[in-house]
Amino acid sequence: MIKRIKELENRSRNLEPDTEEWQSMKKATDAYAGRFLDSLPLQKAYTRFDSSVDELLNEEIGEEPGKISELIRTVENRVIPPGLNPASAGHLGYIPGGGLPASALADYLAAVTNPYAGVYFSSPGAVLIEKQMIQWMAKLVGYPPSAGGYLSSGGSLANLTAIVTAREAHKIKPAGIENSVVYLSGQTHHCVDRALNIAGMGECVRRYVPMDKQFRMETGELKVMIEADLEQGLKPWMVVASAGTTDAGAVDSLDEIAEITSKHNIWFHVDAAYGGFFLITDEGKKMMKGIEKSDSAVLDPHKGLFIPYGLGALIVRDQQLLVEAHTYQADYMQDTKTVNHIHSPADLSPELSKHFRSLRMWLPLKLHGVGSFRAALEEKMLLARYAWQKISEMDGFETGPAPQLSVFMFRYNPGHGDVDAMNREIHRLITDDGRIFFSTTKYKGNFMLRLAVLSFRTHLDTIEKALQLIKEKAEQVNA
């Protein structure tokens, strides 16, 4: 047995490179990272691909060790280039995950040191860094010291956790689901509908509140709907408002909604995944007045703070409600129980296994300072308004509402021909060009182009390039 153990040890030591091998691996990896960042201005925002990309599936996972140089070459040439490039300044489509270089360094340190960040007993430092980030966001929202929360993988999981917490806080049992009412709008992110289903609330009554011309929930209609439901013996349970909708960047009238929900004891949740961090700007704070009165809010650092994909946050006004909805007991975890005022992330969320994801937020904030992020967000708001104004002035173009934050819709309508087909062709031509990427959506059945300015690398030169491309492709389609 000892002989076999020694044989296995020799083979398993391949997993722990010596200093020379480690330096070689780091050098190859860092060289590619450098090439990627240096070439970003020349890279496409979108690269078309065909079925040949699927050949990656046929690559075998072999028994013998590979070479780092060959593996990096595969990543550089075959894995990263096809499709969308969120690191590009020309990514003006979906709300991007920013990809701050400082966050990459933080992820590197987190992965190398590999603390278990789910429980205070295991890594108090990692848990305290997460708690510090939650406290900073709670203060940003305007919540009292009783607030708490956790860092999730993104807005979808954070919204799901909010719904579960609200369900438990209102003590909704299976027999009461069909009488429970949630109020949404046509601009509510689809992950909320999905979260209701996952949380076992699929059979609850969903009311879609009409919107005004700015795509904001009509609070007068909300009030009428709630009162009508009460008269019918239903239980108004939750209102989900938006602070930055996906299609139009709309911010609901949070202060008015808060007054209504407070009167009827309804859980008031704000999905601020996209727009939440505009709270660090003076204008954003005014726009989102009333968010401090909500019961819970979702913010995505991988949107408004330009952090790489994989970081969302749920903040709840009363942390104890999170604890009651997610607490657990397990004999094998008995050693991790500590007597202090710190709640572990595992006590506040569905996650038990948790990597040190808070470092990717903490390091950039400490390194660059909040002022740098404030300047970037103010710049993006102004860039979006500038682009909206210029497109509004172009011959044949129609624009949606002026952007409240940094997203708006528009389309080309020269007054003849198949307008939807023309806009699809404009989108195809711009995507084929690759320097700029827009996404598309639909409004009242019409095919719309959508521009979202939220990459920290997007500046005025990018917007000017986008405007020129829009004009050129529209003229080409019209011809």
Brief characterization of the structure:
With 479 residues, the protein is of the alpha/beta class. The chain is built from 16 helices and 13 strands.
CATH class of the largest domain: Alpha Beta
Structural category is alpha/beta
User: Between the first and last Cα atoms, what is the distance in angstroms?
Assistant: 80 Å
Largest sheet: 7 strands, mixed
How many beta-strand segments? Answer: 13
The number of distinct structural domains comes to 2
Please give a structural write-up:
This protein has 479 residues and is α/β, with parallel strands linked by helices. It has 2 domains: 108-368, Type I PLP-dependent aspartate aminotransferase-like (Major domain) (Aspartate Aminotransferase, domain 2, 3-Layer(aba) Sandwich); 370-478, Aspartate Aminotransferase, domain 1 (Alpha-Beta Complex). Helices cover 43% and strands 13% of the residues. The chain has helices spanning 2-12, 19-38, 68-79, 101-113, 124-141, 155-169, 190-198, 219-231, 254-264, 282-287, 301-304, 319-326, 359-368, 370-393, 419-433, 460-478, and strands spanning 46-47, 83-84, 148-152, 180-185, 205-209, 235-242, 267-272, 296-299, 312-316, 397-399, 407-412, 439-443, 446-452. The strands form 3 sheets. A 7-stranded mixed β-sheet has the order 3-9-8-7-6-4-5, sandwiched between helices. It has a 4-stranded antiparallel β-sheet with strand order 10-11-13-12, covered by helices on one side. It has a two-stranded antiparallel ribbon with strand order 1-2. Helix 2 packs parallel to helix 3 (68-79), helix 4 crosses helix 13 and helix 6 (155-169) packs across helix 12. It is globular. The protein starts with a helix and ends with a helix. The mean pLDDT is 93.
